[in-house]
């Protein structure tokens, strides 16, 4: 009876040891799979970090380019604004000069008109005097 119980326990122990070995092998396989998965994830993280670094670099380069372009456009705008101010000033001077010349021309025309009238009267007077002097001995 004891021998039979011992034999039965040994068989049960062997079965349990085999199950333990199988479980340890499965656990080792799972650990190996997890290690592979961890390595794959580490590699993916490295690749994504590299892509992120490249994107940051690209964005910084693009921002620098935009800043330079914006500075250039700002300088160009300032230059054009100065040119516009100078042109407005020049236009104002030309308009003032034009107005002065128009006023001068108007006064000279009025003066010419007055002189023409005076000359016409003087002619009439001269003709009158000649007519009168021709009638006198």
Automatic annotation (TrEMBL):
InterPro entries: LEKR1. Residues 63-97 form a coiled coil. Keywords: Coiled coil. This is LEKR1 protein. The gene is Lekr1.
């Amino acid at each position: 009876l004891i021998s039979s119980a011992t034999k039965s326990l040994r068989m049960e122990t062997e079965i349990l040891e085999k199950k333990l070995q199988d479980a340890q092998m499965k656990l080792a396989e799972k650990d190996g799979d997890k290690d592979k998965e961890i390595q794959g994830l580490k590699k993916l993280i490295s690749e994504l970090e590299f892509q992120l670094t490249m994107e940051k670099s690209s964005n910084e380069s693009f921002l620098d380019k935009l800043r330079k372009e914006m500075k250039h456009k700002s300088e160009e705008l300032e230059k054009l604004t100065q040119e516009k101010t100078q042109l407005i000033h020049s236009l104002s001077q030309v308009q003032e000069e034009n107005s002065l010349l128009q006023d001068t021309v108007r006064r000279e025309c009025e003066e010419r008109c007055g002189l023409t009238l005076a000359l016409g009267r003087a002619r009439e007077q001269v003709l009158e005097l000649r007519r009168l002097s021709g009638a006198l001995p």
